[in-house]
Design a protein that fits this description.
Blueprint: H1 3-21, E1 25-33, E2 36-44, E3 47-56, H2 70-87, E4 93-101, E5 109-113
Parallel strand pairs: 3-4
Antiparallel strand pairs: 1-2, 2-3, 4-5
């Protein structure tokens, strides 16, 4: 596996563990359907939470969440809509971002941004 893929997988593992410790129920990880994909789908009480995880080794090129540009937001909105329709969930939903800064084997910095507007 390429180094950047290993870092991304590590970041998603860190994010999932973080959410579990906060009391979230992880429903799905790496959900894919056609060209749609979501990093983590979880429940926070009665709220469906879609989480995008961004992992970087450092902040030399900005904060990880800054990589979620307009095109990525549109793609995420489409994936979220597809997930909700395909799973026929009628519950409230929100979109969160978890940014992870660090390297494998280190104690990472975790920033959880709750209820982010996509568009």
């Amino acid at each position: 596996m390429a180094a950047h893929n290993e870092l991304g997988k590590w970041g998603e593992d860190i994010a999932a563990d973080y959410l579990k410790k906060k009391g979230y129920e992880i429903i799905e990880r790496d959900w894919k359907s056609g060209h749609h994909d979501l990093d983590i789908v979880a429940k926070d009480g009665n709220t469906l939470v879609i989480v995008e995880v961004k992992t970087r080794r450092n902040r030399l090129f900005g904060n990880p969440e800054e990589a979620i540009d307009y095109k990525k937001r549109k793609s995420l909105q489409s994936a979220i809509n597809h997930y909700i329709k395909s799973h026929r969930t009628g519950q409230d939903a929100r979109f969160d971002i978890i940014s992870i800064v660090g390297v494998i084997g280190s104690q990472p910095e975790i920033d959880h941004i709750i209820d982010v507007a996509l568009i």
